[in-house]
Amino acid sequence: MSQNARVALWVPTADPPDAVNDGILTNDAPNSLKVIPTRFDVGGGGSGGGIEEAPINGQPYSRQDAGWVLASSGGGVEEAPEDGSLYARSDADWSNITPMLALKAPLNSPTFLGDPKAPTPAPGDNDTSIATTAFTKNAVDTAVAGLPAPPAPATVPPLIDGTAAVGASAKYAREDHVHPVDSTRAPLASPVFTGDPKAPTPTAGDNDTSIATTAFTKNAIDTAVAGIPSPPSPSSTTPAGLGPGAVGASALYARADHEHPSFFRKYSTIPAGTFDFNTLFDDGYYNTGTFTNGPPGISGWVFVAIQTHSNIGSGYSVQRLTTMQTFPMQYWMRYCDNNTWQPWVRLLDASQIATAAEFLANTASKILTTDKVWAAAAPITLTDAASVAPNFSLGINFYWPLGAAGRTLANPTNQKNGQTGTIRFNTTSGSITTWGSDWKFAGGIKPTTTAAATYDVLTYSVIGANFICCSFLADVK
Fold it and tell me: What is the pLDDT of residues 174-215, one digit of tens each?
């Protein structure tokens, strides 16, 4: 068995020297230090190594060299060094144990290093015992196992209107959910109400942007009508026929269903003959077989209406002529100023108005009207083919639903200087990769239409022979 050795540990004490009944004296310890016997295993069993125990016979012993001697026989334990460190005796030497104690943790608020370990408390322990990582993991696993399963996401769109309620569904709303637009409420900007909407009635005479209710409107009308004088009485006499123009001074008014007496005037009918329009002063039907000073290109029967100043000698007169055998009918007019006739002017009739087709075909001597211009501007759908050449005499704006990739927009026919328009391409099923030489683009770079389900727009302007200036907008949305 291993042997026990006695180690003398010198620690400060205020006690007087005292025997401890183990054979080691303290009366030679420096500075009133007490030697505390400590036993520890210093070697193996049997006869090998170790310090032999002091005799236990009531006599004081001290160590000298490698043996024990009576304290009265002289010698004793050599004093430990006095340098502030702690020492312990091992065999015949003093060992500094201060570095060894520095590696130990204090009892009060220790700070451990490395991987300190402690006994794992029983599950559910709830006191000041150290909780190991095993104890903590077991506690977390137990707590998590008791949690209910998380709810499932909603599978139906959220509501927009309804009675407010906490709800009882076990499902949750996703973060990116979107409520539908509330079509039962009017927007702040330009609302359109239905039913019988109401608003506060403004004060009478209000003149700002407040909403006018029907009550406000009725009050405003009643107030305005109250200030109007009484209407005149109706006339009780038959209206006159023709007479000198006059404003009139009567306080009576004409009823809505009044009628003027009929006015008959017999017109002359003059057969074909030779006559001069400059000498005509009577209304009538004339056969323009041979005549002078009439409208150009007129033949056959015509009706001439003539208005002459009452003083015929003053030379002021107006002639209006309507063709009777030329269709469509033509209307001409001229006047005499101080005995000098002015040129005939043809008045507007349907034949002079250009149709949309005539406008596109650049037909000469036609009058444009806004409706025909806009009709001509309506987009013309181009028939899809591998190569398409738009006919500029059929339209201004065009639409081409591309049917396949690699289409060619060839040079258009019937180009007119100044014609400007657009061509819209539907690239859902195709694309344009080749352009005719007349289509000119910035930098000479001809585009490729967008390869996607979208629209591309070409804006063009014919500015010269075989020169069409273009700009291209891709993916117009």
Answer: 878 887 777 778 888 888 888 999 999 999 999 999 999 999
Q: Which pTM does this prediction carry?
A: 0.35
Residues in the chain: 477
Token pair recorded at residue 138? 């077991």
pLDDT per residue as tens digits for the range 233-248 = 777 777 665 455 566 7
| CA-closest candidate to residue 306, choices 276, 330, 336 | 336
- Residue with structure tokens 């036993």? 39
**Pairwise CA distance, residues 424 & 413, whole Å:** 18
Q: What is the DSSP letter of 113?
A: -
| CA distances in angstroms from 320 to 63, 189, 324, 458, listed in the order given | 162, 57, 13, 51
User: Per-residue DSSP letters for 285-341?
Assistant: EEE-SEEES--TT--SEEEEEEEE-SSGGG--EEEEEEESSSSS--EEEEEEETTEE
Helix H or strand E encompassing 399 = strand 398-401
How many angstroms separate the CA atoms of 15 and 32, rounded?
8
